[in-house]
Amino acid sequence: MDLEIPAARTILKASETMKEKSIINPFGAPVYYQEAVSSTMEESRLLAARGEAHGTVIVADFQEQGRGRAGRPWLAARGQNLFFTILLRFACFKAIPRAITLRTGLAVSLAIEDFAPPLRGQVKVKWPNDIMLFSKKTAGILTESDSSLVYIGIGINVFQREFPAQLKAKATSILIETERAGQSGNTDRERGRDILLGHILARLYTELTADRADWRSRLEERLFKKDERVRFTPGLADSPLKVEGALRGIDPDGGLIIETEGDKRLFTTGELDVYGESERKL
Ligand code: BTN
Fold it and tell me: Which in 42, 58, 110, 244 has the greatest CB count within 10 A?
């Protein structure tokens, strides 16, 4: 299971400065905007508490305490990137689609290609929650749940050109890679991010709503390091244990299959080591 279930949080008041954006949302729910928030994950919980519908989105220009997987911070510049959380309500815990984070990754990678056609064929999904462009991270997905309520938070580096020293070698943006491909791309930051959000919602709706039994094969076509030799840290953060082998694919529940010495092994938690050192240092 790839959902992170956090401890109970302080209930904050939903902000009164929230506006509604006129972005088409195929879930039929509002897309709210707020300039700065602590984290869109918290705002989404507040929206759930006040009874907002399945598919309600909260998007912000800046997060003071954006968070990533496994308690890491999510650091990204103001006004250049896309940060949002979508609230999904299911009938019960069992109705949550299997491998929801990876299927979201598939949707996000397709949407990035819709938004930036010069990048077609280059947008990869790195197990379990990253989107990569040329071996650098351009987006991350954080899925949390409270029983049948699911909060999917997505952060995408869209127009950021400069990254802090500790991220430079590991992070990139859609703009950087579109320009590297010799294309100018969409540079209207306001409209560009809204257009990208529209593409993501459209793709997400199709991936999570339609009965797409072929999600695994479509995901494996764009799986980062598929059939390549990888180093993997299984389990919880800072485990000294490493596994080396060939990355073979994804199982129906979203587990990672690595082949070591002829044996196929399945992992449900852990981290792929891309840069020769654990990404947990990010
Ligand atoms: C990761 O790569 O570890 C996941 C990053 C998820 C970041 C997004 S930005 C929108 C939403 N709000 C947050 O605080 N985190 C997620």
Answer: 58
List per-block mean pLDDT (blocks of 10 residues) for the chain, which spans 282 residues: 46 68 97 96 97 98 93 88 97 94 98 96 97 97 96 97 90 94 75 96 93 88 97 82 94 95 93 64 32
Q: Ligand 1: residues whose CB is within 6 Å?
A: 39-41, 63, 66-69, 72, 74, 83-85, 129-130, 140-142, 153-155
Ligand 1 geometric centre to CA of 262 (Å): 36
Domain boundaries, the chain: 4-220, 229-274
CA 66 to ligand 1: nearest atom: 14
From the alpha carbon of 40, which atom of ligand 1 is closest? 12
CATH architecture of 229-274: Roll (2.30)
Q: Which of 164, 152, 168, 157 is CA-nearest to residue 69?
A: 152
Q: How far is CA 87 from CA 54, 84, 137, 147, in A?
A: 6, 10, 24, 13
